[in-house]
Amino acid sequence: MTLTVLQIIPALGSGGAEQGTVDIAAALVKRGDRALIVTEGGWREETALNAGANVILHDAATKNPVQIIKNAFWLADLIRREKVDIVHARSRAPAWSAKLACKMTGRPFVTTFHAAYKISGAAKRLYNSVMASASRVIAVSPFISTHIRENYGVPDRRLRVIDRGLDLSALDPAVITEDRLSVLRTAWKLQEGQKPIILPARLSAIKGHDTVLLALGKLKRRGVTLPPVVFVGDDQGRARYSRKLYDLVAHQGLDGIVTFAGACSDMPAAYALAQLVLQPSRVPEGFGRVPVEAMAMGVPVIASDLGAMKDTILEGQTGWLVAPEHPDEWAKAIERALSMKPEQRETMACTARGHVAAHYANEIMVAKTLAVYDELAAERKQ
Prior knowledge:
The chain has helices spanning 16-30, 45-50, 65-82, 92-105, 122-129, 142-152, 178-187, 209-221, 239-251, 267-273, 289-296, 309-312, 327-338, 342-359, 362-381, and strands at 4-8, 34-39, 54-57, 86-89, 109-113, 136-139, 159-161, 197-200, 229-232, 258-262, 276-279, 301-304, 319-322. By secondary structure, the chain is an alpha/beta fold. The protein has 2 domains: 4-165 and 361-381, Rossmann fold, CATH 3.40.50; 173-359, Glycogen Phosphorylase B (Rossmann fold), CATH 3.40.50.2000. The strands form 2 sheets. It has a 7-stranded parallel sheet with strand order 3-2-1-4-5-6-7, sandwiched between helices. Strands 10-9-8-11-12-13 form a 6-stranded parallel sheet, sandwiched between helices. Helix 4 (92-105) links the parallel strand 4 (86-89) and strand 5 (109-113). Helix 1 (16-30) packs across helix 15 (362-381), helix 3 (65-82) crosses helix 4 (92-105) and helix 11 packs across helix 14 (342-359). It is elongated, with a radius of gyration of 22 Å. The model has no long low-confidence stretch (mean pLDDT 93).
């Protein structure tokens, strides 16, 4: 049976949800199904089109209640016209339109719960609840699955845990050329052979850069020799926070050690250059793509003992988990990682790559998601 699946997402730019949307569309087309994506567009739009998806541009990001209702009627008409079998919403605002459209047309409704959305009151809980109301609710990690059960009471028969998937063909140390490494060395002002510590994250207070700077300052004052440290990510307009970090670098005596490199368009090469990856988040991550990408490249990770990173990182085997906002503990973990012997590092790299291949390969995510679609299509035929 050929399926027609409509995914709806606000935009097709950066992010795990956006990449997953394109990956699923490509997989549907590859097995002979039809893939529709309703979105406002973005730089991934071309990738989706090249994969054979039908990208339909529409105001999918609106939070205006009147427009959400109008979108529901527009979607219902599209569902009937295109003979859509299943509707999959990946964000809250368009999920409301999709849910109403599915009620009008009798189509199965799927959502993917990408984050532990904040619940600050009854209105916010109601707004979030649409993601828990579908025929099948996909959680992107065991952490998110627990959050859904505890806060929205979704039963196991409707809940599916499908970890995000990575393209491991791109995250393979063997495919990283010297030219790619050289470009980053030049941009980051690294000497040949220098292996930096990197912290890939936008410059935002919730990402915990200041905790790392305080930890590095403690190590420097104790006489620990530090490698270059590169903060990979821009401030997205948060100039005040950036200035706070610059001042903290100077105050901790880290000038010449810490570099603010801005965004990086070649993260596999960045991981290949690094000897250690840090993720000191202050808030729980729904999945936490960076640690998993780093592990795929065989690089040890130190991350906050929060959210899905507790699921993805094997303590002491692929990295270490540390309490957030505790510079003393971060200093100890960083020193431990820097003191690893080559054979310890190689053992950790092999374990990390195997762990990611077994649990977070894109093919696993795709197969499990298509199985959800097939399950719902079979139920609808009964």
